[in-house]
Design brief:
Blueprint (H helix, E strand, L loop, with lengths): L12 H9 L3 E7 L2 E8 L4 H9 L1 H4 L6 E4 L6 E6 L4 E11 L3 E8 L7 E9 L5 E8 L5 H22 L6
Length: 169
Amino acid sequence: MQRNTPNADRMPKRDLAMAMTRPHLELVETARDRITIVADFPHLSPAILFDYWTRTDLLKKWWPPTAELQPEVGGTFHFSWPRQDWHLRGQFTMFDRGKRLGFTWKWDHEAIDVTRVTVLFRPMPNGGTELTLHHEGYSKSSEAKKTRDEHIEGWTFFLRKLQEQGQEP
């Protein structure tokens, strides 16, 4: 997979320095019905990065302030952001520590159907993990397109927060 790299000729020096030191994160595919994002986590093993998605103490460091989950296939989760009165719910469909995680996705405040998320964890040759996130199942409606675009923004923001965790706990 070819990756986009910062163009030094068009970036201010401060922004270029920041781009060169931040781990890679790239939206590699967006279609009407799906999102794919690839992000590198150079200081986290696949198993530990997986734990950041499935252990409430680690999950709350980068994503929801409140999390309840049953970490197993068929188990459910409920994440909430009390200040905004947002509630995200779903069920785990894949659970293979350090390899893959799958779950359904439904916000209480969104009118669109349930979507699906798959997160793949691949060891990088020099250590760390390459994470590939697929979020799919969006319908062709204009509301679903708007929601998908909001999810791109949200995933990018929260995956950057996860990258900032940096070291194994």
